[in-house]
Amino acid sequence: AEGQTVTIAVGAPITSIDPHYHNLAPNNAMAEHIFERLVQTDERARPMPGLAESWRAIDDTTWEFRLRSGVKFHNGSDFTADDVAFTIARAPNVPNSPSSFGIYTRAVAEVQVVDPLTVRFRTRSVYPLLPTDLAQIAILDRETHQNAATEDFNSGKVAFGTGPYRFIRYVPGDRIELERNDSHWGPRQPWQRVNYRIVVNDAARTAALLAGDVDLIDQVATTDIARLRADPRVSISEIVGLRIIYLHLDRSRSDGTPFVTGPNGEPLGRNPLDDLRVRRALSLSIDRAAIVERVMEGAAIPAGQFLPEGTFGHVPGLEAPKYDPEAARRLLAEAGFPNGLRVTLHGPSDRYVNDARIIQAIGQMWTRIGIRTTVEPLPWTTFIARAGRQEFSLFLVGWGSATGEASSPLRSLVATFDREKGFGASNRGRYSNKQLDALLERALATVDDAAREKLLQDATRIAIEDVGIIPLHIQKNVWAARRGFTHTARADELTRAMDVAPAR
Amino acid sequence: MTVYLIRRLMQSAVVVLAMTIILFLGVYAIGDPVEILISPDADQIERERAIAALGLDQPLWLQYLTFLENALRGDLGRSFVFNEPALRLILQKMPATLELALAATLFAVLLGLPLGLWAGLRPEALSSRVIMAGSILGFSLPTFWVGLMLIMVFAVELGWLPSTGRGPTAEFLGLHWSFLTLEGLRHLVLPAINLSLFKISLVIRLTRAGVRETVLMDYVKFARAKGLAPRRVIFVHVLKNIMIPVLTVTALEFGSTIAFSVVTESIFAWPGMGKLIIDSIYVLDRPVIVAYLMIIVLMFILLNFVVDVMYSALDPRVRLQDQRG
Amino acid sequence: MAATLEVRSLRAHFFTKAGVVKAVDDVSFSIGEGQVLGLVGESVSGKSVTGFSILGLVDPPGRVVGGEILFKGRDLTKLSEEEWRRVRGRDIAMIFQDPMMTLNPVLRIDTQMIETVLAHEKVSEKAARARAREALVQVGIPSPDERLRAYPHQFSGGMRQRVAIAIALLHRPALIIADEPTTALDVTIQGQILYEVQKLCREMGTSLIWITHDLAVVAGLADEICVMYAGRIVEKGPVDQVLDAPLHPYTKGLIGSVPSRNVRGQKLAQIPGMTPSLLSLPPGCAFRARCPRADAACLAEPALTRPRPGREIRCFHPHLVDEVV
Amino acid sequence: MTPPSVESTALGVPPRQAAAAPREETPLRRFVSDFAESRLAVVAFAAFVLIVLAALLAPVIAPQNPYDLAQLDIMDGRLPPGSVGGAGFTYLLGTDDQGRDMLSGILYGLRISLAVGAGSAFIAFCAGTALGLVAAYFGGRTDTVIMRLVDLQLSFPAILVALMILAFLGKGIINVVIAIVVVEWAYYARTVRGTALVERRREYIEAAACLALSHARIVFRHLLPNCLPPLIVVGTMQVARAIALEATLSFLGLGVPVTEPSLGLLIANGYEYLLSGRYWISFYPGIALLVTIVVINLVGDQLRDVLNPRLRR
Amino acid sequence: MGGGEEASAPTAGAPVPTHGAGARTPILSLRGVSREFRKPFDLAARLARRLGADIREEVVHAVDRVDLDIFAGEVVGLVGESGCGKSTLGRMVAGILPPTSGTIFWKGRDRASFPPGEAKAAKLAVQMIFQDPYASLNPRLRVGEIIGEAPLVHGLVPAAELEAYVDEQMRRAGLDPAFKRRYPHQFSGGQRQRIGIARALAVGPEFLVCDEAVAALDVSIQAQILNLFMDLRRELGLTYLFISHDLGVVEHLSDRVVIMYLGRVVESAPAEEVFARPNHPYTQALLAEVPRISNRKRAFAGVKGEIPSPLAPPAGCHFHPRCSHAMPICREAAPPLREVAPGHLSACHLNDRPAV
Ligand SMILES: Nc1ncnc2c1ncn2[C@@H]1O[C@H](COP(=O)(O)OP(=O)(O)OP(=O)(O)O)[C@@H](O)[C@H]1O
Ligand SMILES: Nc1ncnc2c1ncn2[C@@H]1O[C@H](COP(=O)(O)OP(=O)(O)OP(=O)(O)O)[C@@H](O)[C@H]1O
Ligand SMILES: [Mg+2]
Ligand SMILES: [Mg+2]
């Protein structure tokens, strides 16, 4: 630990140093070392001051942010309100971006630089989520980054932010090397150098940790958690995350869905998933506790709604349904399927933790109540394209709420698909519920936090009771550190050197 | 020679063109990269913007023609993921892979040739049988499995060698190589062994088969009848003859070594081209996939050509022709 | 005249899986200085194995199991492998049947010649090259310097055989064993080779063992003739006597079946049956089954007898009354 | 009308090539006795037969149908060898994460691995042989086109071709077979063409042509059987290769579906448990895979020696 | 390309002088039959040539405008050194290889003009016996199948009688029919050659092409096979084209001898005539070089020079570089075949001189 270097192995590749190029969690995690945002989030994804010391809504559509003074970029430029204006303009317009940050700046109609340390945002409509959205935007320097291309960041030419670490080197797909920014405004970092290595293979990551090649690994394979826990050379840090694993149900057609048939494979002429009793049967027959224990090896909690306790919009008391195969069978019979059904459950095989194993386990459980299940895990590449074309009937997906706010899953997963409003973008089952849509729209126009949270909770309750989706569990984020290092787990899955400290 | 060159060139051009079409269609059919690359938070408008930004809104044939036009100018497109020229990305990774493949090939020749020679000269001896049994194992063991076992034993249990990664590199000829530092070498050992296991077996068996056939040849007997020392008979008369097929195959195999490093690299987190391509397939980074495969094809063509030239240099009977015997 | 080589009761057997092949069984002959001995017999009669035995080049599963090979009074079978090696190529040289196969295809002519010189003499490479050149001139190869730099495949069959002869001559050996060296060549080329060999032997006083199945070739070349059948010498004697008055029914049949010895258009005198397998040779005279004179006596092994001065045969019923053939 | 058999005196003496062998020596018998010369190869062959039997009889001898989700219980997951499961069932080789009996999984996995190996080798054999024979027999343009195709195929690393095809077609046994066939047909075509080019020049083919036999007859009755030996050798090696390739593809996540695991997939699944000490999940399938491939290679090795005319004495 | 173009070659189709056979139609005649082997230019080669590369098409004139008549019941010996085109000529006669130019007449009719049915009959009428007793039998078939396949396929024998038919063919070739179920590898060289003969005889040929049919056999076995050929000729009235490089064998067997050198016929005459009065210098040299048992302790001499490559045969008379009588004209023009005595043809410029 006194070597002043920390070596971290992460499981997902970092594809760019440009913090606005690709909106991707690993990129964002890396960016947090070098760049900073006006609003930052704590380990439970709650907003806290970053480059902005404070903010407030002046009226329904105007927000004022007061900036931290004396902050300098790594190359010596001063951080001012003008840089904020520049950043907001650049973020949505990075050439070739496969996934831009424009979604977080879209609400902003205008940026007013009041003085070097004060900036005002005018939003197009009432927009309570502005601080949350701005927590995603890394601030760049106008002088330095005026005409900077993504490659210039990668090569290090303009990789200057205000963050606690400076960029040294980036080898795509392999590693990033950082060194401490000694003139950072915040608390002094314990590490002189950070080696941030990309080791995609789970076992290789664990092996590297055990072999002492690295000090911290993220995305610890669930299969290894027990062993690592027992190993005195290693300490585990974990936290319930913001990613929910759930089943989506095809609601896009009413005259029958391709992968649900009668018990002998005969077409049904209607979509049994439109029947609430069938949906509830499907949900009740899943033994979530067993999945959490046997498949996830404890690295998850059974879920009955989108978000875990302590997040904005969590509905207290809305527990995961209790495993009740009897009730499920009854419901199925009531719905007109006493002899069960035959279904195919799809899911990715390489995307979420143990994804293929989970659907197999569900397959077992459903088969046991008379729903003969074929399980078909697919590579994410093909899976997601087909899911987007509504080719499946029942499929497993996950959702990580970057903002840690219930509006995010509600808007993307269960709100009626609507291009103009930007609703239901990931609603691949095309679930639709007018009541829910109305509640959500109201919530999104309510600045008052308490009122908004209430609306979101109501919407959530509707979605869950109507079985718009079948929530399974919420993943825990698990890290493992070598002896001599301690790590503070983060709900947002980001792996950062700032969360590692030498053990006392 | 000229005819040979022209024929080769024409064939290569056809192969490359055919390859581009197959690749383009193939990669296109696999899936939609936007679905994978886009942030889950993104709404439909953002999605459409991304599609346009990546040029995927154009009809396929137009995309292909654009690609072809750019390719002719040496531009194989920009990675969707890294937003860097695909070619540069791959070339950046190439030294690592080349280094690994070279080390594996070196292992194969340095170990395989003597062992094969021994087994071929004494086919009945116990040691030869052991060698051959070993070579069958080397042939049979799946690369991935061996890789895991190597890590388990040498890195995790014994802790002798690092488990993964490339280790520090030193610059030489403007490129970063890891064999120049001790630590780098230590990182190189396990993956190189893993990758070379199959080749060692191959070289052993080729050598043995060659030796067994060659020693029966009249010219070997004639060499002995001339009163040459056994050493000279073996190391000049026999070895020179079997070197031809062995080197040819080894050189040709170099291409597939590079290709097969996909597996080794992903197990040992070796930052080479193989790992890049696997990662790129996972995220459907189309330009990188296409560029990688094009480079591999070109490399194979080049390698074939080099092997042909080498073959004709080694074996005086052969003139450059369009096929090897 | 002291014999250059004397072979006494030579036996060379092959221990194959199917059984013991007595390829050479109790063979004795001797050859004086400057003499030419014709070793005649049909295929698999053991001619080549006899030749190889003299050089100690019988390979496993074969082995010389008995007899003496006295070269200038020294028994070669008692030599160590290294001592025997020094005899090969220097004192006794050998020329093989197939000129396409006896020269190593991947080594240049000069390499193959120079190494022969250096194998037995400590001279500079330059001197060795001069010797090689001289040898090529001797066998009538034009522009020897150019030829030295060539590879075997650039030569015609006749030229290659001449190179082989040149190699045999490098150390002016006392004895050359020529194993059917003209069988693969055309008549006109065969004439050339025979011419060269004859000339050189005369000039240098080299003894020559000429192995062939063609009686006509030895007729013109040899002083003495040995006829082999199934691993044994069945008849031996000066060439004129053996050919004009064969004593053994086999020799007689052999001579009789040569077309030019028969009246044109008439049926050829033929030996019935076929050459026996050496593996399952029944006891007694091996020619018994095909012999018109065979009777119960032939069930016993015939011993070598000398019915006339200078003649030896192995037969119970030789054609002792001279019949014109 | 015919002269008395001139060789009748010799008929009692067996011809020399057949010296010590039984009287009625067929190529098959000779082949069998040559093959049996290596004890190791015989043992390997016996093991191979056992493995094939085990695979064929898997539904009969396996304690559990590991593909039937209803028979699996996740609560029995990851039990070590010899454990007794919830339903009182003893898992001799333990269970995997889904509660699948490893013994049954291995037996069924063998089935898939062998089926994929044999199936793909067979199809590739047929396709490659037909094309190679046609190329060799007719020569000219046909030959050029087919052989360029072969070159194209061979100039491309097998694993990448297979990866591409599977990424394109998706997982599934049939798709794996297709991928392997596409990868492997060229080996057969090249081999058979090489042999056929030599055999075609043999005089017995000319004799057949002289006897006015049809092309089809010459190709399939005369040419093909004589090109078989090297093909058989290539075939056995390719079966082993196909099995290994399938395992590798499954390991990379592009092989057979997880619910019907082949040996390779079982290993891949268990691989994640290696570090956690639950070795049996990948160890036993690994051993099964290893033994299978080694055994096939050993048999192929002996075949190569037996069928290689150049090493015949 | 090839040698200099010669004007005086006999023209195809012109009647060829026959040796005193009067107006009999030959059973087989060749008129100007040639066979070239060439490696065709492909696109790349043409391009390279366009670019000025010095490449030439490789053409081997294996057989160069050969005229030949063979009469029923005759044995014609074809002699020449290795690579001179004997086998190629034999294959063309046997119909295995089509000629690149020239015509082959079967019983006076152009063989190419035959309707399919007759063409097959004509093809079966000419059979070939091969040199290599090991390579000429399909190792995967039993002897009975080897002999019986063609007669059965062509409907010459009903299936029910096949067994007996095969037995008869085997007996005729001197084989014990009991060996019918054996495979070729179980036989000795001589026996195999008999199987090959039985196979050919089984389709009832009138004409046999024997390509070095005894070259691979031991002397004692060779005599057996030669005797068999002679017996068959007598019994079945067969006509032979007997190809060999062994002059002794040819002398013994043939009525007429044809001598080839580098694809061309250089001399053709009745056997006694050739051996008694060889006309062409090449024939003379050849005869001088043949070792004979009766020649003892002779001094060998050898025709000087190597056999030229058929890829680049010398211009004019192919033999001139090795000929001790070579004249300037020999370098320029190929001598035509002309009659030097009744029934004795020779292609040599020495014969152009006024009769001695
Ligand atoms: N390597 C070997 N293994 C087994 N038997 C052998 C071997 N070499 C030779 N023989 C046997 O030795 C015997 C004599 O063979 P050899 O080569 O001396 O005959 P040859 O008279 O030279 O015949 P040819 O005229 O065919 O050359 C044969 O029966 C042969 O089978
Ligand atoms: N299929 C072929 N392709 C190319 N060249 C050929 C082919 N067949 C024969 N030739 C060439 O034609 C020439 C004559 O060959 P051919 O076999 O007729 O000679 P030959 O007189 O029978 O010789 P040998 O006595 O060696 O059998 C040779 O130069 C040979 O290389
Ligand atoms: Mg011999
Ligand atoms: Mg020939």
TrEMBL record, chain B:
Tell me which domain of life the UniProt entry assigns to the organism this sequence originates from. Answer: Bacteria
Would I find Transport among this entry's keywords? yes
Could you tell me which PROSITE patterns the record lists for this protein? ABC_TM1
Name a biological process GO annotation.
transmembrane transport
GO cellular-component terms in the record? plasma membrane
- InterPro entries per UniProt: BPD_transp_1_N, MetI-like
- Residue ranges spanning the membrane: these are 12-31, 100-118, 130-155, 175-198, 242-269, 289-314
Q: Which UniProt keywords apply?
A: Cell membrane, Membrane, Transmembrane, Transmembrane helix, Transport
Localized where?
A: Cell membrane
Q: How does it sit in the membrane?
A: Multi-pass membrane protein
Pfam families referenced in this protein's UniProt entry, alphabetically: BPD_transp_1 (PF00528), BPD_transp_1_N (PF19300)
Domain ABC transmembrane type-1 stretches? 94-307
**Family designation:** Belongs to the binding-protein-dependent transport system permease family.
Q: What is this protein called?
A: ABC transporter permease
Its lineage opens with: Bacteria, Pseudomonadati, Pseudomonadota, Alphaproteobacteria, Acetobacterales
Automatic annotation (TrEMBL), chain C:
| An example Gene Ontology molecular-function term | ATP binding
PROSITE patterns xrefs: ABC_TRANSPORTER_1, ABC_TRANSPORTER_2
Name any one Pfam family assigned in the record.
oligo_HPY
* Annotated protein name in UniProt: ABC transporter ATP-binding protein
Q: Whose protein is this, by species? A: Elioraea tepida
PANTHER family, per database record: DIPEPTIDE TRANSPORT ATP-BINDING PROTEIN DPPD, OLIGOPEPTIDE TRANSPORT ATP-BINDING PROTEIN APPD
Q: Which family does it belong to?
A: Belongs to the ABC transporter superfamily.
Per the record, its GO cellular-component terms are:
plasma membrane
InterPro entries in the cross-refs: AAA+_ATPase, ABC_Ni/Peptide_Import, ABC_transporter-like_ATP-bd, ABC_transporter-like_CS, Oligopep_ABC_C
Q: List where this protein forms a coiled coil.
A: none
Q: Where in the cell is it found?
A: Cell inner membrane
GO BP terms: namely: peptide transport; transmembrane transport
Q: How does it sit in the membrane?
A: Peripheral membrane protein
Where the record annotates domain ABC transporter, the positions are: 7-255
Automatic annotation (TrEMBL), chain D:
Q: What is its main location?
A: membrane
Recorded hits in InterPro entries, A to Z, give:
BP-dependent_transpt_permease (IPR050366), MetI-like (IPR000515), OppC_N (IPR025966)
Q: GO:BP terms for this protein?
A: transmembrane transport
Q: Where in the cell is it found?
A: Cell membrane
Q: Which residues form the ABC transmembrane type-1 domain?
A: 110-300
Q: Which UniProt keywords apply?
A: Membrane, Transmembrane, Transmembrane helix, Transport
The source's superkingdom equals Bacteria
Q: Which Pfam families match?
A: BPD_transp_1, OppC_N
This protein's membrane topology, according to the annotation, is:
Multi-pass membrane protein
What's in the GO CC field?
A: plasma membrane
Which PROSITE patterns would you find in this protein's record? ABC_TM1 (PS50928)
Q: Where is this region: Disordered?
A: 1-23
The residues that cross the membrane are 40-62, 112-138, 158-183, 279-300
Extract the PANTHER family matched here.
ABC TRANSPORTER PERMEASE PROTEIN, OLIGOPEPTIDE TRANSPORT SYSTEM PERMEASE PROTEIN APPC
Report the sequence similarity comment from the record: Belongs to the binding-protein-dependent transport system permease family.
Protein name, entry field? ABC transporter permease
Which organism was this protein described from?
Elioraea tepida
What is this organism's lineage?
Answer: Bacteria, Pseudomonadati, Pseudomonadota, Alphaproteobacteria, Acetobacterales
TrEMBL record, chain E:
Membrane topology per the record?
A: Peripheral membrane protein
Q: Which is one Pfam family of this protein? A: ABC_tran
Statement: the UniProt record of this protein carries the keyword ATP-binding: yes
Ranges for region Disordered: 1-23
Q: Where in the cell is it found?
A: Cell inner membrane
Q: Which InterPro entries match?
A: AAA+_ATPase, ABC_transp_ATP-bind, ABC_transporter-like_ATP-bd, ABC_transporter-like_CS, Oligopep_ABC_C
Q: The ABC transporter domain covers which part of the protein?
A: 45-287
Q: What Gene Ontology cellular component terms go with this record?
A: plasma membrane
Give the keywords, sorted: ATP-binding, Nucleotide-binding, Transport
Molecular-function annotations in GO: ATP binding; ATP hydrolysis activity
Tell me the PROSITE patterns matching this sequence: ABC_TRANSPORTER_1 (PS00211), ABC_TRANSPORTER_2 (PS50893)
Q: Mind listing the GO biological process terms from this record?
A: peptide transport; transmembrane transport
Presence of the UniProt keyword Plastid in the record: no
Q: Where does it primarily localize?
A: membrane
Q: Family per UniProt?
A: Belongs to the ABC transporter superfamily.
Q: What is this protein called?
A: ATP-binding cassette domain-containing protein
Organism of origin: Elioraea tepida
